[in-house]
Write a structure and sequence with these properties.
The chain is an alpha/beta fold. It has helices spanning 17-23, 28-48, 68-87, 107-120, 136-152, 163-167, 215-227; strands spanning 9-13, 53-60, 95-99, 127-134, 180-183, 202-205. Bound molecules: 3-methylbut-3-enyl trihydrogen diphosphate (2 copies) and magnesium ion (MG). One 3-methylbut-3-enyl trihydrogen diphosphate binds next to strand 2.
Length: 235
Amino acid sequence: MEKSSFPLHVGIIMDGNGRWAKKRGLPRPAGHSAGAAVFKKIVRYSSSIGIRYLTIYAFSTENWKRPVEEVGALIKLFKQYLQDALRDFLNENIKVCFLGDTSAFPQDLQNLISETEEVSKNKTGMVLNIALNYGSRAEIVRAVRLLAQEVKSGKLEPDAIEEADIEKYLYTSGQPDPDLIIRPSGENRISNFLLWQSAYSEYVVMDILWPDFKPKDLDWALEEYARRNRRFGGV
Ligand code: IPE
Ligand code: IPE
Ligand code: MG
């Protein structure tokens, strides 16, 4: 594949865990466990094929609406995942960042999050963004509040506000926008993921549930991306 047709930044909306479990007569958390195993595999695979930025949507600001047992099971899985990551996964050259308001999680999970960021911060390979309690609208509100502080303190004139000023306060500050966003599970919607950053991203919706997602499915999405003609408003 030519380098120019290979995305620098890939986003994935991990979706379909619940339906995968239901199809098998299992409780929804069983689907999340299966999904977590796929997450690990796809992270490693993405890094091995040279993706530079991978952003995975793992828990949205709206996912708190789910039954308390399901949210509890997800939090338990996030802890397990980060414990495992700290044990073996960080031997790989991957830098982990978290997007979202992680202060809403229990303290032990918050500690694991900071530890993971800390021990991986000097890695030079793929950047793995894990979107956890992430919502793009909340992210934009946060950026606007921080900008308003700058205006209030006299550092910035309202008329001088530019796109770059907003970008600098997004969780993805300093990173390139996603080129490709993949949504498994067949749903044709964004569900509050990277609204600002995805202005010109290519969307690929796939009719496969996340726990069934294989490296070859990522290959397929990359081939589909390579066939797209991105114009960014030009001709
Ligand atoms: C994605 O799978 C995982 C999270 C949103 C945390 P879902 O749990 O949304 O699975 P479906 O969409 O109900 O099948
Ligand atoms: C989006 O999936 C959020 C994550 C994958 C973390 P949802 O399953 O929550 O989205 P909707 O409810 O189908 O829009
Ligand atoms: Mg879903």
